[in-house]
Amino acid sequence: MTIQIAPSILSADFVNLERELKAISTADLVHVDVMDHHFVPNLTLGEPIVKRICEVSPIPVDAHLMIEDPDRWAPEFAKAGADSVTFHMGAAHAPVRLARQLHDMGTRACFAVRPAEPVEPIFDILDEFYMILIMTVEPGFGGQKFLDNQMNKVRRLRDEITRRGLKTKIQVDGGVSPSTAAIVAAAGADVLVAGSAVYGADDPAQAIASIRQEAEKAFRA
Ligand SMILES: O=C(CO)[C@@H](O)[C@H](O)COP(=O)(O)O
């Protein structure tokens, strides 16, 4: 199984996004945090900027929608060109219908779980999603402390995926760095989002390589 690294542009220089995207071209995906100041207490960027990011990004774009009413808005991010669109369990009204709509549009549908939310309710609808995102911080801001108490959730999800022979990916987002990468990979996560650890480093490519190396050594399928 391959580990994928997805730098979050939340910690990038928003005035120089094209340059910031080039700096992470050795990563597998770029994670774009869309926040609406309702579902989370922060406001970032919307569909017109994501569309432009999709046009210039050297790697696939993973749009993480931390917004209310994704049923209305997620298809707009698929139209903008995002390769994957993640919406939240606590926000979607009809998650299966929305996932099918996104897949019909040629976009990978992914489902996110906040720290206080259980993962088991997803088990029944696991095969509708390309990837499940387990948040390891409360969504809203970069640079927060990694919540290692979320690792039980990652382990239970990995066990369920393995038991059923599914290919669903497990993404972890929040506080991921070279020193926490092994913990999340050992629990069974195979897509690691890292914002401040990549863009806060002197050499983002080196930070990506370190996170990848630590995760690959520890990953359990
Ligand atoms: O979605 C979020 C925060 O809500 C994340 O993508 C963060 O942006 C990750 O930042 P670090 O914890 O890696 O600094």
TrEMBL record:
Species of provenance: Alloscardovia theropitheci
Lineage, top ranks: Bacteria, Bacillati, Actinomycetota, Actinomycetes, Bifidobacteriales
CDD domains cross-referenced by the UniProt entry: RPE (cd00429)
Cofactor list: Zn(2+); a divalent metal cation; Mn(2+); Fe(2+)
Molecular function GO terms recorded: D-ribulose-phosphate 3-epimerase activity; metal ion binding
Entry similarity comment: Belongs to the ribulose-phosphate 3-epimerase family.
Keyword Isomerase included in the entry's annotation: yes
Job of this protein: Catalyzes the reversible epimerization of D-ribulose 5-phosphate to D-xylulose 5-phosphate.
Keyword presence, Iron-sulfur: no
UniProt name for this protein: Ribulose-phosphate 3-epimerase
